[in-house]
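Hi! If you just cloned this repository, the fastest way to understand the data is to look at a raw example. We've pasted two of them here, unedited. The first protein comes first, obviously.
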Amino acid sequence: MTQKRVVVVGAGWAGLGATYHLAKQGYDVTLLEAGANPGGLVAGWKTTKGQSVEAGVHGFWYPYRNIFSLINELAINPFTTWTRSSQYSPFGLEVESPIFQDLPRLPTPLGTFLYTQFKRLPLIDRISALPLLYALIDFDNSDEAWRRYDFVTARELFKDFGVSARLYRDSFEPMLLVGLFAPGEQCSAAATLGMLYFFILAHQADFDVVWCRGTVGEKIFRPWVEKIEKAGAKGLANRRVTDIRVDNNRATGVVCGDEVFDADAVIFAVGITGMKKIVSNSPSLQSRQEFRNLSNLGAIDVLATRLWFDRKIEIPRPSNACFGFDATTGWTFFNLNELHDEYKNEPGTVIEADFYHANQFLNLSDEEIVQRVKRDLATCIPEFRQAKVIDSSVIRLANAVSHFAPGSYRYMLPASTSFDNVFMSGDWIVNRHGSWSQEKAYVTGLEAANLVVDYLKQGKPAEILPVEADEAHIQVARGVNKIVRDLGKSILPDFWLP
């Protein structure tokens, strides 16, 4: 029997997830990657001196149930133990987070509220966040909730619910800068609520995180790709998609310049910027309004730096977020001597510092960037003032991560498209799973694979683990809220803005 052919475009979490499952189900899968290596933004490579670098350090959070299940299936051990984190401002240490799962579990959000150690933020400011709990109850990740909150900015949301100016400045805005990668006035309130709930507030342990003990490309993607190839899939690098061939509303092939890859189904698994480039070159995709609408979506600049210092410096926590150094930029720094196997015995200190919404930094020279990073590190950890940088890496990533801007939800694509056999995946795709970031990308890859299985009637669907169920009091509150909302719709005139 002739194998059914599937072409997957993009070799990040979504594309590898879709390819792996479909290959195991007996499909003839071709995976096309525009870059030199699989992995997209999380792939790593070597400097001219043989040092490992990557496009930013990526955490793996407690709710990443599907990625952790994959790691178990691959029988690899890429992660650190659960780690504690800190938060710094130009005034010094601001917040320390415990390992929440090691503490007595309290009903959400009490554990987050009581166990997080704020060094300077007054209790009265923290209490001002309580009215915001209604928005978290009201936002249930439904299509209706997204449309209700997506036109509101995060800043408006916090202001409308009475969050104090200091709490917003010292807590919520920093979360946005390193979670949604933009300041509050540029973030959708819907995306903000979804991100906060998934990573922090749904359950006490959700903020707990592990890190890869090297680059994700080396520790996870390399053994995963080996498994994918053993399952029979073909991975082709340096293939930039320029169009798809369409016959009777079905994609019959994917075009890469002079090459055409025949297909019975196609999965796109690329970021917003990559997808917009593909659409700009593709008459077939430009013929559909849903793909033309992608021009309304944007992405955010990231700057990833890695610095090698000439001495060991004591850093209290391996992962740290920073705010207040620049009005619209958030950044993180990581002690790779503690996180990465490669640097455990390094005589000096190795630091990864990543900047989000880093537009104003990309045109600086490498030397200017390195000096700025060293200065900011010394503000947080004064011992860096005496240290010398002996090697460095600077990676500029323009339009690298998804921008969940106010009003953007209406332009994002669902997994199914107007083409019968073209499916979408990635961290910017509309889905109801409730996950975010790498976990969402991987989940949407599995969802796209399941749509192919259903369409081509071959194989079994992938098992997708749901997010942990809401705690009982949250379920009750959401149920009551829905009854009240439905009752209001039935008896009140429909003329207010959602």
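Ok, and the second one:
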Amino acid sequence: MALKEQVIENHNEFLESLRHRFLDDDRKAALQRFEKLGFPTKKDEEYKYTNLKEITEKGYNFFPKESHNITKEQLDELHLGEENFDWITFVNGKLHKELSKVSIENVEFLSFNYALNDEKHRDIFEKYFNTIAADKSAFTNLNQAYCKYGFFLKVPKNVVIEKPIHVFYISQNQEENTFYNTRNLLIVDEGAKVEIIESHHNFDNTYVLTNSVTEIFTYPNAKADWHKLQNDNDTSYLIDNTFAKQEKDSLTTVNTFSFGGKLVRNNLDFIQNGSNINSFMNGITIIGKDQLVDHHTAVHHNQPNCESYQNYKGIFNGNSHGVFNGKVFVDKIAQKTNAYQQNNNVLLSEGATIDTKPQLEIFADDVKCSHGCTVGQLNEDALFYLRARGISKKEAQALLLYAFANDAMQNIDIEPLKDKISKLLAEKLEVDIEF
């Protein structure tokens, strides 16, 4: 049975499995919107270069088995050497405290499912939940209809969380293809600060489809950093929708590092709701074989004196396919906007392709906006220079590619994460680099 039919057929059983029912009407309405929209096809402009048939024509289990046999050694391999970090571990959708380390204080942290069951958080959910997530997308509506897994975190005013928090989503011991709808809600109050690292890991040979929605609210003078480390196996699909709403004088960063997964679609939407806002989006994609990674970004400059920076680098080998579509919207009152957008790509094989489309829509007249993209091969003169100094062709290529991708990591201030990304770059490029 195709996924759309399964979505409709399983919904009543899903609702019956929930302890909380106060969102039932919203979930049913979301399912109706999804049913009307259907999954996007290549006829849809936003999915013109991304064929989802591989995902949508498979069947999935909507109720994953909770049992697992994850070992400490397996978990240790996923860590970044971050002994001083906190981490949250979800296995087969369920939060496992015994596999987590949470030392943060003076914050409200709950698993998403528990938060839905906790009546004292009802007002917060009614105020924030699904208020910035787009309801015109099939996948966001599907997530709203089925969301259960994920976490809720509210950082109170002026609280600075010194330790980064690494969130692991693990699937293991599933005998069938499995479907997860993860939902994250992050609220960073005035003057607060937090850094999140998110990663997904499939330990089985069966297919996993994760449909994730994250809503980030950053209040005045607050700082929120969200780092997505995407390095899953070849039987994993990830559709990620992240929405960030910022108030005046705030700073929000979303970094996306895509190395693994059969098909990955990242939708990133920033909404600037005040003046003197800074928004940063960086991405590094290195894929091969027949992988596909698609980045769609949008920044809405709605107020004056704000800045946004987008810097995405792609390296494509084998028969891999990359997509980048970055949009910047500048409202007529958003004078003194400074928006920068750049997408640079290197194709390493004849079978690799990239479709890139940076876009600007500007309705103000006193702005500084730029956008651009490049697609090419390695510089032959630079290769010759390195080889003339005794460096092999393979190592010379890898060093140039490492340097090409490296500047997209410059605003990572978590050293273990920066080291991990550097090591993954080196592994993908098959070169020995000292850190």
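That's it. A detail worth noticing about the second one: The chain has one domain: 3-397.
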